[in-house]
Amino acid sequence: MRALPLLVAASVIAAPASADTLADALRAAYETNPELAAARAAVRRADENMPIARAEMRPNIGGSVTFSQDLDDELNDFGRVTVAGFRVTQPVWAGGRVQAQLSAADARIGAAREILRSVENRIIADTVEAYAEVLATREEVRLNQNQVKVLREQLRASSDRFEVGDVTRTDVAQSQARLADAEARLVAAQGNALTAEQTYIRLVGRPPGELAALPPLPPLPPSVEAARDLALASAPVLIAARYDEKAAAEQVRAIRRERWGTASVNASFGYQIPAGGPFEQFRVDGLVGGINMNASIPIYTAGLLSARTRQAEATQSEAIETIESTERTVLEQTTNAWIAIETAKSVIRSARASIDANRLAAEGVRQENLVGSRDIIEVLNAEQELLNSQVVLVRAERNLYAATYRLLQVIGRAEAAALGITDKLYDPAVNFRRVNRSWREWREDPDPRTDRQRNRPDGAREPAAVAPPPLSVRRMGPPAPGQLE
Predict the structure, then answer these.
(1) Residue 41 contacts by C-beta under 8 Å, 6 or more apart in sequence?
(2) More confident residue, 263 or 268
(3) Which residue in 483, 481, 467 sits closest to 233, CA to CA?
(4) Distance between CA 264 and CA 125 in Å, rounded?
(5) pLDDT tops 70 at residue 472
(6) Minimal CA–CA distance to 193: which of 344, 11, 13, 26?
(7) Which residues does 90 contact at the CB level (< 8 Å), separation at least 6?
(8) At what angle do helices 34-47 and 428-435 cross, to 10 degrees?
(9) How far is 133 from 468, CA to CA, in rounded Å?
């Protein structure tokens, strides 16, 4: 019975002394949450698809050294030749395949950015819910502690009145049973508070200290219909699904273009150094090389290209169905969140009225019990009903905040830029511009195990750069190839 209270006290002692606000918690989650950092790294990984696709039409330079030795009985210098040189290959024709791969890479980058938006929206909504849950569970602990205190006083009074014959042993037993039940509820509430704190630590990265009250709720769409329209226009998961379909379509086009063949210009230059021998007059010592053009076109591939095309078409078909499935899910989540918001508002109004009535009733029953017109069990029931209505209010206020931010998450508005959490925002376009047209061969990033700052926000960005589309855009599709640049 004492373990959980001790754990609660220890967690409070280990927590920061200053009070955190919801904005502080959201800022910490945005800047340090590892899941969000991993999503940023995934966008950088997708960025590399663009230079990889561009490399197929760029020159390729390689060096080589060739050593040959004719075999005879003594392996002497006769017939020994060494050639050192380099080779340059410039593709000049790929049948449009590279352009299709560039368009596919462009769409994959767009999908990765939308997945990053989706993760950011979810982390922020999760953090708001965790913050509200910590406040709610702590309030429930306080209410249950107060209930235990009241019931202990009630048991003491019942025992004193039993000693003088004013109440029966049954009344005392009822008070004892209700106190034991309240103590059990208190332990359960303390356990829920500890669980809520662990969720908060996972998201924010530090224990919750004294938390400030929840701020006013952000504005919402005027109706559920407006919310559904906005979700179809700007839900990150839905936009990502459309990008995936665009990438799949471009991959189909790229495979079909392989039938158009390829062509390249090759140039090789070297220096030949033959060794001496009995036929020294036949030696050739000096520059060797030449320029040639190679072209090839597949005529029969044993069904390979057809199979790969059908496979890519199946992937595109899957992506098309995923769009439809995601649209339905987004509409469902939007509607459910709206219903949860309206339900929580109604419960809050009812709970407040219930608290007022139960508080008045409990006071009246206590006074009537003192004059003998009410039994102890009626007093205990009135106290329990008051506690129940107070807990309902706490839960409803928590649910209202959680549902509000879940709605913002679905429609893509639970973002750092949209909420004004911080002016230090992560901009995925910075890395894209760095690598998009890079020609440098020996260019690597630092060891990821020692340099994790790349996954953190590192500079200011205008909120307009990440503003979702207007409500009038009902169906947002992927951009044209090259638009991400």
Answers:
(1) 448, 454, 455
(2) 263
(3) 467
(4) 53
(5) no
(6) 11
(7) 59, 60, 264, 265, 266
(8) 30
(9) 29
Q: Residue 453: which of 478, 431, 437, 435 has the closest Cα?
A: 431
Which residues on adjacent β-strands are paired with residue 88?
61, 267
pLDDT at 8 over 50: no
Residue ranges and CATH numbers for the domains of the chain are: 3-11+32-58+94-261+297-428+456-466 (1.20.1600.10)
Token output for 158: 């019942």
Structure tokens at 319: 């992506």
Q: What does the pLDDT average to over 360-368? A: 89
| Consecutive H or E run containing 289 | strand 286-296
Distance CA 392, CA 384 (A): 12
User: Looking at residue 455, what DSSP letter applies?
Assistant: G
Give residue 307's pLDDT band: very low, low, confident or very high (50, 70, 90).
very high
Q: How far apart are CA 481 and CA 289, in angstroms?
A: 40
In the chain, what is the straight-line distance between the N-terminal and C-terminal CA atoms, in Å?
62
| Radius of gyration in angstroms for the set of CA atoms belonging to the chain, rounded to a whole number | 36
24-59 burial, b for 16+ CB within 10 Å, e for fewer?
A: bbbbbbbbbbeebbebbeebbebbbbbbebbeebee
Q: Cα–Cα distance between 231 and 417 in angstroms, integer?
A: 18
Residue 303 three-state SS: coil
* CB contact at 8 A, 82 and 272: yes
Predicted pLDDT of residue 15: 42
| Residues 81 and 274: beta-carbon distance below 8 Å | yes
Q: In 10 A of CB 12, how many CB atoms?
A: 14
Contact between residue 157 and residue 179 where contact means Cβ atoms under 8 Å apart: no
Q: How many angstroms separate the CA atoms of 310 and 304, rounded?
A: 10
Q: Among 91-95, 126-130, 152-156, 360-364, name the one with the lowest average pLDDT.
A: 152-156
Name 272's bridge partners: 83, 286
Separation between Cα atoms, residue 243 and residue 435, nearest integer Å: 21
From residue 323, how far is each of 326, 390, 424, 466 by CA, in Å?
5, 44, 33, 22
| Distance between CA atoms of residues 401 and 215, nearest Å | 10
User: Is pLDDT above 70 for 361?
Assistant: yes
Report which DSSP code applies to 211: B
Q: In this structure, what is the dihedral angle of CA atoms 10, 12, 14, 18, given to the nearest 10 degrees? A: -170
The Cα diameter of the chain in Å comes to 136
What's the order of all strands across the beta sheet hosting 286-296? 60-69, 80-93, 262-274, 286-296
Alpha carbon distance 172, 154 (integer Å): 9
Nearest Cα neighbor of 83 from 268, 282, 267 is: 268
